[in-house]
Design goal:
3 domains; six-stranded mixed sheet; Serine Threonine Protein Phosphatase 5, Tetratricopeptide repeat; alpha/beta; 23 helices; 535 residues; Arc Repressor Mutant, subunit A; Rossmann fold
Length: 535
């Protein structure tokens, strides 16, 4: 408990320390801005307030109306340009070249986006600018427009549903870190028109287009979506939802959450494919390459090497910091590393830095939850995952990790509900095998071995290359008296992870809860009967 309290104090203290970006030092508590050299940059109250709002909403598009509402002491006229003047003054004080701003970026027709915390010192901006110039011919990474979904049935109620899916999906995709999503009002200009998708890509300067349709027949609703590469017109991915009509709002919420999760994966894999073809990969190229390996499951070490390279090129690459921490946690959780404590310390350092740079990073809070759970701090881990869900309600893995925390605290019967919620939100998630493994472990700890076997087999079916589920399957089968099957499962696990022993499992208890420890005892016994080496 003391260790957890100390870590929380460190996080809160560091969150209050000055932010360093692009050769500048911003102290939100002291309300000062200076250069690394120590030179103070004087800001008016309005300029500092705008900068503070940008920093707190790093990477998000903030509309002019939102800025007007936040900083106006009076009601502005509809075409008042005061905010633009204020942003212009701030740019002249902090941008290396105010005519080509890189910290405060104008998003045409939408507002402004602050990218400052993603950038390095001014001496590195030349390199960044060189990389940007190489890519200038093409649209930004993760740039996408969600075209208005077509209503194929003509029913006005169905039209509202189609518009609702379009709007909600646009909002949810904008939560993807680094994504550039064309605003609803711009996308709406294409509604009902016969359009050339390649031309839309050129007009909006986006890499990807999502189009879809809604059709109702009797008591069923069908939603079709497809992801298209704008430059080539190639279809990258398609999905169809065919569900009985119940509550339209509930159905809309479910479809949007599933699509947002899956699209995040598909866009990342598409970017990884592009990065693989790059002759001069930059920090984000290495991030996407690492993410592609990370999704494959057993390649956590290979993924980590790409995250290492991404962070070397850009020490403030928050996405790479978080995923490098996750890679370490995967290696620890699956007994694939001999260096458990150093892995945990490295993950802690990466997450502390990531949360200092981006306190609103849901995935970082989720990883922090996993770290705490793997460090005998399950209650605090659950709280961190709940914080992640407060930021991003569609973060399915946070639900599963809460289930993980529940069985670590002896509440095995509650775990399956959280896993099922994760699967409801993202049923085809790349990480679903791990959630099923968690559900199986909780059932095993609760001595429900038949149900545990079902979950473990489902996990193995989705990811046959991870050994952990096979060892627990062996233990469950042994307790059911199916020793031949148990030995077969144990042997398959040892072929994937030859260094695994019961002694290693004993050395890494994740909780001192009595119910949890009793389940561990069943695991040692079952794995021994199945032929897993003692030490």
């Amino acid at each position: 408990m003391r260790e957890a309290q100390e870590f929380d104090v460190k996080l809160s203290q560091e969150a209050a320390t000055p932010l360093h970006f692009a050769g500048l030092v911003l102290d939100l508590d002291a309300r000062t801005l200076a250069r690394d050299s120590g030179e103070t940059i004087p800001l008016t109250r309005g300029e500092f307030a705008v900068l503070e709002m940008f920093v707190n909403r790093q990477g998000r598009v903030i509309s002019r109306d939102a800025l007007l509402d936040a900083f106006a002491d009076r009601r502005f006229e509809p075409f008042d340009r005061s905010v633009d003047v204020l942003v212009g003054k701030l740019r002249r004080k902090i941008e290396a070249d105010p005519k080509e701003p890189r910290l405060i970026v104008t998003v045409p027709g939408e507002g402004y986006r602050f990218d400052g915390l993603r950038l390095k010192r001014p001496d590195a901006l030349k390199t960044d600018a060189g990389n940007a110039a190489k890519r200038e011919a093409g649209p930004p990474r993760l740039s996408i427009v969600v075209l208005p979904f077509a209503n194929l049935g003509g029913d006005p109620e169905q039209d509202y549903f189609a518009d609702g899916v379009t709007d909600s999906l646009t909002t949810d995709l904008s939560r993807i870190s680094g994504a550039f999503v064309i605003g609803r009002s711009t996308a709406l200009s294409y509604k009902g028109k016969a359009v050339d998708l390649k031309q839309i890509g050129r007009e909006l300067n986006v890499r990807y287009i999502l189009e879809g349709s809604v059709q109702r027949a009797a008591n069923r609703m069908r939603v079709n979506v497809q992801l298209i590469e704008a430059e080539t017109g190639a279809h990258l991915w398609a999905e169809r939802f065919d569900k009985p009509v119940a509550d339209l709002f509930d159905m809309q919420d479910e479809i949007v959450s599933r699509l947002a999760n899956r699209l995040g994966e598909e866009l990342a894999l598409a970017e990884a494919d592009r990065a693989e073809r790059s002759s001069d990969p930059d920090s984000m190229d290495h991030f996407f390459l690492g993410l592609a390996h990370f999704y494959k499951g057993p390649a956590a070490d290979k993924a980590r090497s790409h995250f290492d390279r991404a962070i070397e090129l850009d020490p403030n690459n928050v996405d790479a910091l978080v995923l490098r921490a996750w890679a370490d946690l995967v290696l620890v959780a699956n007994w694939l590393s001999e260096d458990r404590q150093n892995r945990l310390r490295s993950a802690e350092a990466d997450l502390r830095k990531a949360l200092k740079l981006r306190p609103d990073k849901a995935y970082a809070h989720n990883a922090l939850g996993a770290l705490r759970m793997l460090s005998n701090r399950a209650v605090q881990g659950i709280a961190a995952c709940e914080r992640a869900l407060a930021i991003n309600r569609n973060l399915a893995t946070a639900h599963a990790m809460i289930g993980f925390g529940k069985y670590l605290t002896g509440r095995n019967h509650e775990t399956e509900g959280h896993v099922l919620e994760a699967l409801r939100i993202s049923p085809r998630d790349i990480g679903a095998w791990n959630w099923m493994y968690i559900a199986g472990a909780a059932r095993f700890y609760g001595a429900c071995d038949e149900e545990a076997v079902v979950w473990f087999n489902r996990s193995i079916e989705l990811n046959p290359n991870m050994a952990a589920a096979r060892f627990w399957l062996a233990a469950a089968l042994a307790h059911l008296g199916r020793l031949e099957d148990a030995r077969e499962a144990a042997l398959a696990g040892l072929q994937l992870n030859p260094s695994f022993t019961i002694a290693r499992l004993r050395s890494a208890a994740l909780s001192d809860n009595a119910v949890y420890l009793a389940g561990r005892g069943r695991a040692y016994e079952g794995m021994g009967l199945a032929g897993v080496p003692e030490g």
